[in-house]
Amino acid sequence: MNKISHNILNRGEYLGTAFQSYESDHLLVKSTIHHRSESEFHSHRNAYLSILLSGTYSEISENDKNRIYPGNVIFRSAEYIHKNTFDTNETKCFNAEFHAEWFTKYDLNHRKGKPRIRYISNYPFLFQLLIDFLKYNMIDFTEDLLLDFINQYQKDTIPLRTPWLQKLMHILNNEIDDVHSLKSLSERVFVHQNYMCRVFKEKVGVSIGQYQIEKKLHCAIKKLFCERRNIAAVGLECGFFDESHFIRTFKAHYGITPYQFRLLLNS
To answer: What residues does each domain of the chain span?
Structure first.
C-alpha cells in the first residue's frame, strides 16, 4: 500500500465542494458535493466516516473495488489510500472526521481497520446524527454510542451460537412485511415463548417487538433513499399496517416524518 504515490488530505480537507459544516469536541462534520470526475489516489490524515446521501460512486484501493450507493456508510481509517470515480452529475456525501485525540483517549488505533460498507439503517444513532446535521446544522449524540460504533468496525462479528436463535433471526430478517406474534414465532422455532423472549433480549439487546419495528424502519429508510414511491406504498411494503402507522412510528423514532426526511435529502 505504501508504494502507491498519493496525496494526503489534512484535517477538514475533502474532495469536492463543501456546502455545510459543523464541529464538536470529537468530530468535524462536512457535507460535500462532487460532480462527474475521477480522483487521484489519496488518503486522509484523520479517520472519518462517510455516508452517501445521493448519487453513486466507485472506490478503488490497492486490493479492492467497491460500488457505493445512497445510504451506505464507510468508516475509513487514518491514511487509508484510495481513489474515487464519481459517475453521476451530482453526488452528495456526509463526512464526519474524528479528532486524533479522541482515539488516544480510548486507546484506539486510528489506522486500524479495513473499510467495510455498511447501511445506515443498521445504526439508528448515525441516522439521528445525520438528521440533526441536515435539519439543525448541529449534532447531539452520546459518546458511548460512537465508541461502540468504532469498536464494531474494528473487530469481527461474533456469530450467534444458539441454533433456534439463528432460525428466529432468519425469520425476523427475511419476513419483514409480516406481523409475527410471539406465539407463532415460538411454534416455528420450537421454544417456549418466555424462554425465547428472555434469551433473545439477552443475546440481541432489544425485545423481539422492538427488533421487528427496527427492521421495518430499516427497510423504509433504504426505500426512502433509493426509490421515489409514495410514502403509503413504502410503509405497506415494509410491513406497517397503513400510512398513518408508518408515519407515526417513523416520527417517534427519528423526530421527523418520512416526507420531511425526503425533503431534507433533496434540499
So the answer is: 7-153, 163-266
Task: Name the grid cell of 99.
Answer: 479528532
Question: Domain 163-266 falls in which CATH fold?
Answer: Arc Repressor Mutant, subunit A (1.10.10)
Give the number of C-alpha atoms closer than 13 A to the C-alpha of residue 81, restricted to the C-beta side.
Answer: 11
The span from the CA of 35 to the CA of 267, in Å, is 17
Decide: pTM greater than 0.90: no
Q: Beta strand 65-68 with 72-76: parallel, antiparallel or unpaired?
A: unpaired
Burial status of residue 83 (CB atoms within 10 A of its CB: 0-12, 13-18, 19 or more): middle
Count of C-beta atoms within a 10 Å radius of residue 68 = 21
CATH of domain 7-153: 2.60.120.10
* Alpha-carbon gap, residue 157 to 206, rounded angstroms: 18
The answer on pLDDT for 195 being more than 70 is yes
- For the cut 90, the answer to whether the pLDDT of residue 135 exceeds it is no
The single residue listed with the C-alpha cell 427488533 is 211
C-alpha cell belonging to residue 40 = 487521484
